[in-house]
Write a structure and sequence with these properties.
Low-confidence stretches: none
CATH superfamily of the largest domain: Pseudouridine synthase
CATH architecture of the largest domain: 2-Layer Sandwich
Order of helices and strands: EHHEEEEEHEHEEEEEEHEEH
Largest sheet: 9 strands, mixed
Distance between the termini: 54 Å
Shape: globular
Number of helices: 6
CATH class of the largest domain: Alpha Beta
Structural class: alpha+beta
Number of domains: 3
Strand content: 25-35%
Radius of gyration: 21 Å
Number of strands: 15
């Protein structure tokens, strides 16, 4: 249970969204708790729209969602590399990695479970084998662990920053420097919960490096490397310096004609837990992104 003291002039639901202790929860989750009576104001249930006067004792009893499970589905999956420890796949844009809010069927995990059967269980029943993720509309190479031992080994490589991840991004505007580093911490946006932000002093450490590959009249084509793997990291960091990823409306990009944003996980280099070899896997650039570049 979490206990807070109300602030004058704030709606109850808006007040709760601003609390650091509840930052991992979505607006809809908090509103569902209010409807279920899990939020008590001075000992009584209240409506989300309640206008606080200040000084109220607000008690929140969080509740988890029912667990989701990966369900095998016979749908296409493009394998770029595999060995006894892991699988590297080419994730297309628009495909959700694993089940979650609003996404249950057709996920990448469901396809992998059907094709390969047993995968690492360290991620739980909802995301077997998943060591890292790509946003729904980000395409490119993704690693999946086949065993728990491989999962631990890969997770240690990610934590130790020995996995090299290279992305291709087209951003709006003319990036002045030929290369640069962005180190702003990343946190959940306290107002728009579907977004992350690099505008707060608090947040998780994040490192993004970029290099200009080509310049266009209104765009800059970048090669991006990340030392950390925060949610929406590349999109947030590039938007924070005034250069949102082309097509990324969530972070302020104007319309481009793309029905996705221009971000592609091109290459990943890691040490195979089964062989000990240093492996590099590349994902070809999707045709719609290549076509967009050609048109520029």
């Amino acid at each position: 249970m979490h206990t807070f003291t109300g602030e004058s002039g704030k709606r109850l639901d808006h007040f709760l969204l601003l609390q650091k202790e509840l930052s991992e929860y979505s607006r809809s989750r908090i509103q569902s708790w209010i409807k279920e009576g899990r939020v008590q104001v001075n000992g009584s249930a209240a409506k989300a729209s309640l206008l606080l006067r200040g000084g109220e004792r607000i008690e929140v009893s969080p509740a988890g969602l029912p667990p989701l499970k990966a369900t095998p589905e016979n749908l296409p999956v493009e394998v770029l590399y595999e060995d006894a420890a892991l699988i590297a796949v080419n994730k297309p844009p628009g495909l959700t990695v694993h089940a979650g809010a609003g996404a249950h069927a057709g996920t990448l995990v469901n396809r992998l479970v059907h094709r390969f059967g047993a995968l690492s269980q360290l991620g739980g029943e909802m995301r077997p084998g998943i060591v890292h993720r790509l946003d729904k509309d980000t395409s490119g190479v993704l690693l999946v662990a086949r065993t728990d031992a491989a999962h631990r080994a890969l997770a240690a490589q990610f934590a130790g920053r020995t996995v090299e991840k290279v992305y291709l991004a087209l951003v709006h505007g003319k990036v002045r420097a030929d290369s640069g580093r962005i180190t702003k911490p990343i946190a959940r946006d306290p107002v728009r919960r579907t977004r992350m932000t690099a505008r707060l002093e608090s947040g998780r450490e994040a490192l993004t490096e970029y290099r200009v590959r080509k310049r266009f009249d209104k765009f800059t084509y970048l090669e991006v490397r990340i030392g950390t793997g925060r949610t929406h990291q590349i999109r947030v960091h590039l938007a924070s310096i005034g250069h949102p990823v082309a097509g990324d409306k969530l972070y302020g990009a104007p319309a481009t004609g793309l029905d996705r944003y221009f971000l592609h996980a091109q290459r990943i280099t890691f040490t195979s837990p089964s062989s000990g070899d240093r492996i590099t896997v590349e994902a070809p650039r999707p045709p719609e992104l290549q076509q967009y570049l050609d048109n520029l």
